[in-house]
């Protein structure tokens, strides 16, 4: 059974059609990276998986449960899906330890001792066991994002969603977050990752999905998508992202050196 | 003559102090100090007000304030949540309530609760006597203001906080209680303290309900002393006692704000 199975997903914001018929399958243990230009619908696709956005039509199944079914207990499904946001979204009024324990205690009804133990294990996994007593504001962006990952892991998810997890970070802090994600992938975690980190996608992904204009343009193993992309749009996007200093004036319609 | 920048700044500063000194000097020499202290600072009059000024009047002022605040805060929270509800009639009701009670004088509402309601329902009464009437009479108005403050506080909490909580499997209610409201209240502590300070002063309206020697508050107490002693010193005493309540409150806010800054 696939961890995620999406069929014919459509989503509009007002008149703007953001997703125009997405079909996507993620199998257990796979790491699927979604790449594409801004506004291509990548984040919306990710947010539909745990119903942060309500799809207009189509079906989404997570571990066999149809989340798009109106009778689905979405809170129960979300317990099994960890999510990491671009802006970290740590709870500012709680310490690092409380951030990692609050849902364990309130949602999973674990005892304080049990929740603390699991928090320590997961903070240790992301290398931040010594920061348990700190408040989020006292941490760097990279540390906050690692706490956010630990917070999600403490719920024992069978699937992790990453929504541009390194896009809000200073360049020198990107590496520590990617290292944690690479470690998770190596442990066999099923991951759906929206990212602009092409090197990460190339190295870690089992499959890369290129989206543009609300549709999946091309997907396949990273070696194929990056090495010999079939579609012109994919080639153009990769050219602009991977070789930004080689983008010529004629490509963007500028006339600086007449 | 060309003046250096530093020299010009120094002359401006000295001129500022000179003006201030002249103004103070003029005020001091114009005042009739003998008459002033005779009128407002008669120690024997002040002494005669104690200990009742503290054990009864100050105490009741604080009790009225706290009762009305707790009532207003609770009702205000409910109204704020109604304003943010997805159910249209709730939003509509809360908006109507807030617009109504913000637009009415607190004194009118107090009259309504103290005399209007008992006349309309002679066989029922608000429990707690004057204390109950004050709680409701001042709390109803305070709730309207606090509802708007709390709503603004809830909306000031970034949307991502609720999303992160929901993503962890919390229900909407649980996420509001554990994640959004605690942060919203930290944001609205300064305006809410303002609300307490305003309420403290509004308790001076309570006398219209006909207070007794045990339920009297500061302003009425000072007014009565003024009448019996034919001297305005009691007003100064009452004024100082109001400051005894409000100054520590501002201090408290500053402390809480410092703490909140550390945690953000």
From TrEMBL, chain A:
Membrane topology field: Peripheral membrane protein
Name of protein: ABC-type polar-amino-acid transporter
Lineage top rank: taxon: Bacteria
Entry's transmembrane regions: none
EC number(s) from the headed UniProt entry: 7.4.2.1
UniProt GO cellular component terms: plasma membrane
PANTHER family documented for this protein: AMINO ACID IMPORT ATP-BINDING PROTEIN (PTHR43166), GLUTAMATE_ASPARTATE IMPORT ATP-BINDING PROTEIN GLTL (PTHR43166:SF9)
Molecular-function GO term, any one: ATPase-coupled polar amino acid-transporter activity
Keyword list, A-Z: Amino-acid transport, ATP-binding, Cell membrane, Membrane, Nucleotide-binding, Transport
SUPFAM superfamilies linked to this entry: P-loop containing nucleoside triphosphate hydrolases
InterPro entries: AAA+_ATPase, ABC_ATPase_HisP-typ, ABC_transporter-like_ATP-bd, ABC_transporter-like_CS, MetN_ABC_transporter-like, P-loop_NTPase
Annotated compartments: Cell membrane
Domain ABC transporter: 4-238
Chief location category: membrane
Substrates-to-products reaction catalysed: a polar amino acid(out) + ATP + H2O = a polar amino acid(in) + ADP + phosphate + H(+)
One of the Pfam families matching this protein, by short name: ABC_tran
Keyword hit for Nucleotide-binding: yes
UniProtKB/TrEMBL annotation, chain B:
GO biological process: amino acid transport
Recorded superkingdom: Bacteria
Location of this chain's protein in the cell: Cell membrane
Gene Ontology cellular component terms for the protein in this record: ATP-binding cassette (ABC) transporter complex
Protein topology in the membrane: Multi-pass membrane protein
PROSITE patterns with a match to the protein in the record: ABC_TM1 (PS50928)
Domain ABC transmembrane type-1 stretches: 58-253
UniProt protein name: Amino acid ABC transporter permease
Organism: Actinoplanes auranticolor
Origin organism lineage: Bacteria, Bacillati, Actinomycetota, Actinomycetes, Micromonosporales
């Amino acid at each position: 059974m696939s961890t995620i199975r999406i069929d014919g997903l459509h989503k509009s914001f007002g008149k703007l059609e953001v997703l125009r018929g997405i079909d996507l399958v993620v199998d257990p243990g796979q790491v699927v990276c979604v790449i594409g230009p801004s506004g291509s619908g990548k984040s919306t696709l990710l947010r539909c998986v745990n119903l942060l956005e309500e799809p207009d039509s189509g079906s989404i199944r997570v571990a066999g449960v149809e989340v798009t079914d109106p009778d689905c207990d979405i809170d129960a499904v979300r317990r099994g899906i960890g999510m990491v946001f671009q802006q970290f979204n740590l709870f500012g009024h709680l310490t690092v330890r409380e951030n990692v324990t609050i849902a364990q205690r309130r949602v999973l009804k674990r005892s304080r001792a049990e929740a603390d133990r699991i928090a320590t294990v997961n903070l240790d996994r992301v290398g931040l066991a010594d920061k348990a007593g700190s408040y989020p504001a006292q941490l760097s962006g990279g540390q906050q994002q690692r706490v956010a990952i630990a917070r999600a892991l403490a719920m024992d998810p069978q699937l992790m969603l990453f929504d541009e997890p390194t896009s809000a970070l200073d360049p020198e802090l990107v590496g520590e977050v990617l290292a944690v994600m690479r470690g998770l992938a190596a442990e066999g975690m099923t991951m759906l990752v929206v990212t602009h980190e092409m090197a990460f996608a190339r190295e870690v992904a089992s499959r890369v999905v290129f989206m543009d204009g609300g549709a999946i343009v091309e997907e396949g193993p990273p070696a194929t998508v990056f090495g010999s992309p079939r579609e012109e749009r994919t080639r153009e996007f990769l050219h602009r992202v991977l070789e930004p200093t080689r983008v010529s004036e004629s490509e963007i319609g500028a006339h600086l050196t007449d | 003559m060309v003046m250096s920048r530093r020299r010009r700044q120094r002359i401006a500063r000295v001129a500022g102090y000179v003006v201030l000194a002249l103004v103070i000097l003029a005020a001091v020499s114009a005042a009739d100090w003998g008459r002033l202290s005779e009128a407002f600072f008669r120690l024997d009059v002040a002494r005669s007000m104690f200990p009742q000024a503290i054990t009864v009047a100050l105490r009741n002022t604080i009790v009225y304030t706290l009762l009305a605040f707790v009532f207003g805060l609770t009702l205000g929270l409910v109204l704020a949540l109604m304003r943010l509800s997805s159910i249209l009639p709730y939003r509509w009701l809360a908006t109507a309530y807030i617009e109504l009670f913000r637009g009415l004088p607190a004194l009118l509402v107090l009259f309504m609760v103290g005399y209007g309601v008992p006349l309309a329902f002679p066989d029922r009464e608000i429990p707690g006597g004057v204390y109950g009437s004050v709680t409701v009479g001042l709390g109803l108005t305070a709730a309207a203001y606090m509802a708007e403050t709390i709503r603004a506080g809830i909306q000031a909490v970034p949307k991502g906080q609720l999303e992160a909580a929901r993503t962890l499997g919390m229900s909407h209610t649980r996420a509001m209680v554990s994640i959004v409201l605690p942060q919203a209240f930290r944001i609205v502590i300064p305006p809410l303290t303002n609300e307490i300070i305003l309420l403290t002063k509004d308790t001076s309206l309570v006398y219209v309900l006909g207070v007794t020697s045990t339920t009297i508050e500061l302003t009425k107490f000072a007014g009565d002393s003024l009448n019996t002693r034919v001297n305005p010193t009691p007003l100064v005493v009452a004024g100082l006692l109001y400051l005894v309540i409000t100054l520590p409150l501002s201090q408290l806010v500053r402390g809480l704000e410092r703490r909140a800054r550390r945690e953000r």
